[in-house]
């Protein structure tokens, strides 16, 4: 019996390998059926029959970041901005990601700032950049660093500041169960890292519009 299980697993591994290491859609749907059975339900009952298909389809969207390149999102830099060189801050950008420890969602807002040197990017591109990294399995800390580094690489700005505030469902609906707790992470690059006054300016602008 063990031998059969082992050889079935080995042939699934070989199929995954042939497909660039990625399991087939059918294998992914079968895995969802297994999890439903593990949770204690019957994947063949009417309400659940199409669920594996829907879960795999939603995975394609929720984890679409693996197929995207952050450099392409920030490719287009506008150099003609009439000499504008002060801070550009986009705040309260909503995002949703999944923690890599529990695959539970964490949901919140991002505030991104930079001091342009060679030009600016379209503001909507910063929102897309967040999704490239948020739509992967993540920690909030790593997500914060990845966004800051991608902005630094693409824009070569004088400084980058990234702040994320999020609520982690793995902490609010399971585990310690502390609904309402939010996690704040910050990453500073360039002038923001070197100058505490720049950090204070960033935080004041982020908080400024709130009562
Ligand atoms: Zn978690």
Q: What labels would you give this structure?
A:
211 residues; GTP Cyclohydrolase I, domain 2; 2 domains; two-stranded antiparallel ribbon; alpha+beta
Provide a compact summary of the structure:
Helices cover 46% and strands 22% of the residues. The protein has helices at residues 2-18, 25-39, 51-62, 70-73, 123-134, 140-155, 169-172, 191-194, 196-208; strands at 77-78, 88-99, 105-115, 120-121, 137-138, 159-168, 183-190. The site of zinc ion (ZN) has 6 residues, from loops.
What does this 3D model show about the protein?
The structure is a single chain. With 211 residues, the protein is α+β, with helices and mostly antiparallel strands. It contains nine helices and seven strands; from the N terminus they run H-H-H-H-E-E-E-E-H-E-H-E-H-E-H-H. The strands form two sheets. Strands 5-2-3-6-7 form a five-stranded mixed β-sheet. A two-stranded antiparallel ribbon has the order 1-4. Strand 2 and strand 3 (105-115) form a beta hairpin. The longest helix is centred in the N-terminal third of the chain and has 17 residues, at 2-18. It starts with a helix and ends with a helix. The mean pLDDT is 91. Zinc ion is lined by residues 99, 101-102, 104, 168, 170.
